[in-house]
Every structure is written in structure tokens, then in C-alpha cells.
Amino acid sequence: MNKKRLLLGFLLLVAVLLIAAGQPGGAPETAVAVAAAAPAAQSTGALVNAEGQVVPLFNVDLAFQMGGRVAEILVREGATVKAGDALIRLDTIEADLALQQAQARLTSAQATVTLAENQKALAEAAIQTAESQVAAAEANLALVKAGPRPEEIAAAESNLAAAEAAVNQAAGQRDTALNVGTNAQISQAQAQVAAAAAQVRTLEESYDTILTTCFDTPNGEVCPLYGTVEETTRAQLEAARQNQAAAQAGLDALQAGPTAVQQQAAQGGVGVAIAARDLAQAQLDLLNEPVSPERIAIAEVGVLQAQVGVESARTGVTQADAAVAQAQATVVQAEAGVAVAQAMLDRMTLKAAFDGTVSRINTNVGELVGSGLPVVTMADFSGWQIKTTDLTELDVAFVNAGDKVTATFDAIPGKSVSGVVTNVALVASLARGDVVYEVTVALDAAPDLPLRWGMTAVVDIES
Length: 463
What we know:
By secondary structure, the chain is an alpha+beta fold. Among the domains are: 1-42; 45-89 and 358-462, Efflux pump adaptor protein, beta barrel domain (Elongation Factor Tu (Ef-tu), domain 3, Beta Barrel), CATH 2.40.30; 96-141 and 297-335.
């Protein structure tokens, strides 16, 4: 087409030169004028013709960011999808495991933070305890320096008197416990045994009478006291025998006297009471002694030790703060690990980039796909465009955005569609040795035409 245009221009130039040759003195000027006028004639109302291909409004090749084995194809060619819909999923076994491990590390890190925070709370409580101990030590020092008050001495004397009374009481209880088995107690126990034995004998005689009171009748032997009377008497006899055994055991214990355990327990109570009395006496003696430099020094040491405890507790809080910060940093790292693992898992699923149609799927289940290799082509078929393939540099200067276009198609003879130029490429490319520029034409709606992606089209551009 371009060669024809060049040939036509060359023939026109030759004709003008031949005509001018017949006019004396006018050939050079006329030839120059005609040659200069030729471009102006093309720029006004010229019809630029070019070939192109039918393409959708928008299309994109989708690829995985990482390689893997195709586990599932979730759509088919021609399916309409929404942006974000899953299209193809790779095998995610390793990615799932990595995510689980990252989540486990995050859970562990969060538990470490909780533990560190609890340790910090304990350290802060330890400061309060240590400060209380300082206050108590300082109060004790003040008391030591001031000496005992009269009311303290009176209280110590009262405690000593109470302790001495407790010793006397414990001794009495010991004597009572060790003097078990007196003649009167034994006589009383013997009487109880005799009474219990008499009751047993009486019940035995009654029970024998019940068992032997029977009569012969035409229908056989009849024992009228059997049944409720026999059962009641038998139960009473059993209880009486147990009572007799208990009374006999009590008598035996009185006659045997207190056991070694009873004697030790009785004597132990007295020992405890004596120890309490000695402690009360020592406390009273201490109060009555004059305040010595040694006691003051001991109290002062107690204050210093308590103050050291406060400093130690504060150091513990500082260390606990550092442990909390470190644990929180570990949580941040673990959260980042989870995010990375989740991102890796998400990359195993190829999703639709926009609302459109799946026009081509370039893989099958079980195949290995590489990173960056297109596996799905999506397109927006809501409208059609034509992209020229042979518009040369000689014609592109006459084409501008907004120019009207008439397009015909090799596959649909006799039909045309109007359109408009929407873009003229700024950068050239080479096609079969020619410098060409791609021009994009937006076609008007043509729902009755069976247009398909890749069809050859011829466009007439009214420049």
C-alpha cells in the first residue's frame, strides 16, 4: 500500500515536469511549487490505510511468583471471573507446614511475653515488700535506741505469768493422764462388765426360748416366734455382746495403765509449756537489760540489709523490663515470620487481576510451572480495539488521536465497523524491514459481528 503511494507520487511528479518542460523558462519554478504542494494535499482529507489485529480492551498474562506443581485448576477457559477470584492453586504442603511452624513460634513468643510480664509484676511487688522491710528495720532501730517502754515491760511480765500458769496446767493434765486406772475407776469398769454380761445372758435365754418353742401339727412343725420376734431378739443379743466386749476392753485398759505413747504425749505438753515460759522469761530479761551498742549495731545492720534488698528488687525490675522488651521483640519477629509464611502460601494461588474472562490456560494439573512463566491469559471482552501492524513513518504523521476510522475484517466480508483513533505510538518498531508505528483504534459496539481476538482488520483513517 505504501509502495503504491510512493509510485503514484513519483508518476505525478514526472507528469508535472514533462508539462513544465514545454513552457520556456518555467520548468524549475513549477516543478518546485508542485513538489512542495504535495505534502499539503496529503494532510487535508487524506485517507490513511493500514492493517491491524482485533484485540480486547485489556488483556494480561498471569504467572506465579514462585514455581511449583499444579494441584488444582479452579476455572475453565471462557469463564467469567471477578478480581481476586482463585484461578489455579499449586501444591501447598510445604507452605502449609511453614505457616504452622511460624504460627507455633508466634504462640511460643506470646507465651514468653506473658511470662516476662508476670515476672515483672513479681519484681515490682518485691520492691514494695523490700521497702516495707526497710520501714520495719528503721522502726526497730528507733525502738532499740529508745529502749523498752513501761507498757512493753508490763506486757512481757503478763506473758511470763501466763506462761507459768500454762506450765502448771500442763502438769496437772499430765498427772491426770498418767494416773488413770485408780481403784474407783477399775471398780466402776468391773461393774459395767458384769452388767453387760448379765444382759447378754438374759438375751441368750430369750433367744433359746424362741428357737425351741415349736409345735407339731398335721401340716408339720410350727414355730410361732420365728420371724420378726426372732430377728429383733437376735439383733439385741448381738448389740449386747458388742457392749460387753467394749466394757471388757475398757477394764483391761484401766488395769494395764497408760501406754508409752500416752505417757510421752502427756509429758510433751509439759515440755512445750516450759519452753514457752522460758521464752517469756528471756524476753522480759532482754527488756530489762540496758541498751547496748551491740544491739544498736545489729539493728543498724538490719536497716542496711533491708535497703540492699530494695536496690536488689529495683535491679530485678530493670532486668524484668529488659526481658519483656526482648520477648516483645521476639513476638514482632514471629509475627513477621507468620506474615512471610502466609504471603508464601498466598502466592501458591493464582488470582484474577481484574473482572474479566479467562481466555487461555497454559498448564494442566500435575505439571511443574516455573516462576514468571504465563499460565493464564485474561481479557476484558466488553469492547474491542484494533492495533495496527504496518502503519509506516510516511503515514503516521497524518494520524492523530480522535480521527474517525472505518474498519473491515477479512473473516467477515461485507461488514464494517466505525471507530476512532485513541492512541498513536510515540516509539517506532520494525516490521519486515519497515519502520512502523502502532495506532490503537477503539471500535464502536458491534454486538452482531462475531469478532474474535487476533482477527485481521483493515482500517481506513480519515486524517
